[in-house]
Write a sequence for this structure.
């Protein structure tokens, strides 16, 4: 983190014609030689990469390449067989979901994982869980300090609601929302956590063009305004190439390329992986 | 003709002819219903938070009542005033139920995390036997009288007899539900409980600790079991048949829906009232002993026409 550097505009993924004012720091999170196996199947095979503070880092690859598994390693759902995760100045053989959440790693899911029975507001409020410290006793009392704390966190959630333009959906049970909005509420829940690092698992899957543009705008805004580091899995190549600063490409669980969108696009292995080439 | 008359006309005529007796039966049914509801409530809490049908809920009520009477017997010789003994014993029993929740989470739930729900269900079946054995071992198997000083008089309102104990039970159940409702909807922990009930992975991703939530849920269910145990125990003594009420709670749940707290209460009341009224007013049709099976028959009818219960989440599968 000592040697902060600003990306030159040529390297930046921002759409042309607008100045990139972000500061990209040193590595905030990195993985080394991660191996994940399910029974005899190797989902991730010896993958290493780092993520710099403040950048948008994409993980791409064909279906079954191990992208989601990688994200699950980063937030502690999967425990790797071997390898290291370096985060918050420490090195771990595996992450723990609670530790990840309490140290500012928030995530969304490929298949929406919202609390379907709860309202939009309540879903977002769960994102404030770890910021609310009053114990069980005060909670039972309800009035007093617990209520004050509730109101403070509510104010924060309201800012997220404004930011994502979902004010009208506050009281709607999320199970009733259309797909695109559910994805947005899920992003909102992650943002309510005040994350340092945001893990997005296919945030635009199944969306129409307009919804994709909205979502892209939110991701760029989060990254620029709050300096949140974003790690993104996405299938839509156009989106990936537009949004991300650097891209990791996985294929059959192994890393085959790592670099700026332009570098990756020109890489022969990547082209082969996507277009399909006989492996012999 | 005579049969139809006895089935369709006579009972209603009786109800109109003897309104005082009808109201008394109704109240009796409501109060029995409250007790069913209390047991069902414990089931719903655990089912909501973990999707586990806790077969041991009835035994937990028994175990709580046994512990309470046992502790009161232990404290009796100390010469303290009765009220103090009762308060101390109840507080100690609550501590025991919370410890029990901690032990269950550590020894039963945690090793079985991510297993099929049927396996967890089987585990609670085993748990019910362990608890029953532990209760027997610790406090003996005699029928005990539980007297914590609840009013036992009978009110006579214009010929309608109402037991004060029943009214106390209703008030206790009512306040318990009110407190739980506020707790579930208004507090951070309540929100976490609902979150866990909806989606385990998402709950983990926002930093909710499943273990902590399970301990809280089982503790609350334990305290609900204690209230149920006190009420049943005060009414009919603390005996091992208490654990069989758990079976009566099943039709209550099918009626009310497995995930609904108001459902548990209303389901309990419907079954309590239903079985008393049918027992008393349709006596000439069936010749008695309806109370044992009426609830299950009603549940069967519900399963045919409304499997999610009155208030349960509608089961919709997207294709």
């Amino acid at each position: 983190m000592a040697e902060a550097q600003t990306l030159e505009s040529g390297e930046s993924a921002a759409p042309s014609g607008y100045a990139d004012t972000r500061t990209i720091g040193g590595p905030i999170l990195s993985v080394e030689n991660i191996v994940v196996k399910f029974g005899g199947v190797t989902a991730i095979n010896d993958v290493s990469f780092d993520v710099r503070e403040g950048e948008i880092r994409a993980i791409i690859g064909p279906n079954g390449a191990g992208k989601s598994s990688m994200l699950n390693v980063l937030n502690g759902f999967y425990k790797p067989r071997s390898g290291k995760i370096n985060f918050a100045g420490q090195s771990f053989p595996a992450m723990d979901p609670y530790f990840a959440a309490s140290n500012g790693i928030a995530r969304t899911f490929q298949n929406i994982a919202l609390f379907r029975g709860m309202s939009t507001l309540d879903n977002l409020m769960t994102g404030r869980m770890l910021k609310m410290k009053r114990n069980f006793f005060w909670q039972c009392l309800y009035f007093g300090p617990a209520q004050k704390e509730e109101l403070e966190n509510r104010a924060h959630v309201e800012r997220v609601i404004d930011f994502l333009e979902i004010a009208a959906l506050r009281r709607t049970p999320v199970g009733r929302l259309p797909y695109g909005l559910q994805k947005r509420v899920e992003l909102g829940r992650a943002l309510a956590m005040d994350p340092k690092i945001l893990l997005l698992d296919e945030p635009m899957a199944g969306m129409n063009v307009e919804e994709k543009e909205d979502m892209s705008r939110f991701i760029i805004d989060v990254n620029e305004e709050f300096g949140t580091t974003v790690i993104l899995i996405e299938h839509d190549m156009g989106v990936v190439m537009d949004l991300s600063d650097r891209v990791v490409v996985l294929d059959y669980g192994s890393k085959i390329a790592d670099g700026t969108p332009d570098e990756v696009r020109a890489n022969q292995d990547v082209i082969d992986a996507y277009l399909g080439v006989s492996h012999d | 003709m005579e049969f139809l008359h006895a089935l369709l006309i006579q009972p209603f005529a009786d109800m109109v002819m003897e309104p005082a007796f009808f109201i008394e039966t109704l109240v009796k049914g409501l109060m029995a219903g409250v007790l069913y509801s209390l047991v069902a409530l414990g089931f719903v809490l655990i089912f909501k938070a973990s999707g586990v049908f806790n077969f041991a809920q009835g035994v937990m009520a028994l175990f709580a009542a046994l512990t309470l009477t046992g502790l009161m017997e232990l404290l009796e010789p100390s010469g303290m005033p009765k009220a103090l003994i009762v308060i101390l014993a109840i507080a100690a029993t609550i501590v025991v139920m919370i410890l029990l929740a901690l032990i269950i989470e550590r020894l039963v739930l945690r090793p079985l995390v991510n297993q099929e729900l049927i396996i967890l269900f089987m585990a609670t079946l085993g748990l019910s036997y362990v608890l029953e054995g532990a209760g027997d071992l610790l406090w003996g198997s005699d029928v005990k009288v539980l007297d914590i000083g609840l009013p036992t008089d009978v009110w006579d309102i214009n010929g309608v007899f109402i037991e004060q104990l029943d009214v106390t039970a209703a008030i206790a159940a009512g306040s318990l539900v009110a407190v739980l409702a506020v707790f579930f909807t208004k507090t951070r922990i309540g929100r976490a409980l609902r979150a866990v009930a909806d989606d385990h992975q998402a709950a983990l991703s926002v930093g909710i600790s499943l273990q902590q939530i399970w301990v809280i849920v089982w503790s609350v269910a334990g305290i609900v079991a204690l209230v149920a145990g006190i009420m049943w125990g005060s009414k009919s003594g603390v005996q091992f048949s208490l654990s069989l009420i758990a079976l009566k709670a099943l039709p209550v749940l099918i009626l009310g829906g497995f995930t609904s707290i108001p459902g548990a209460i209303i389901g309990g009341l419907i079954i309590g009232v239903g079985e008393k009224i049918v027992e008393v007013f349709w006596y000439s049709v069936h010749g008695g002993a309806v109370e044992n099976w009426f609830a299950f028959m009603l549940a069967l009818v519900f399963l045919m026409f409304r499997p999610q219960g009155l208030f349960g989440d509608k089961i919709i599968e997207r294709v």
In short: Strands of chain B lie at 154-157, 160-163. Chain B touches chain A at residues 182-183, 186-192, 194-195, 197-199, 201-209, 216, 313 (CB under 8 Å). The first strand of chain B starts at residue 154 and ends at 157.
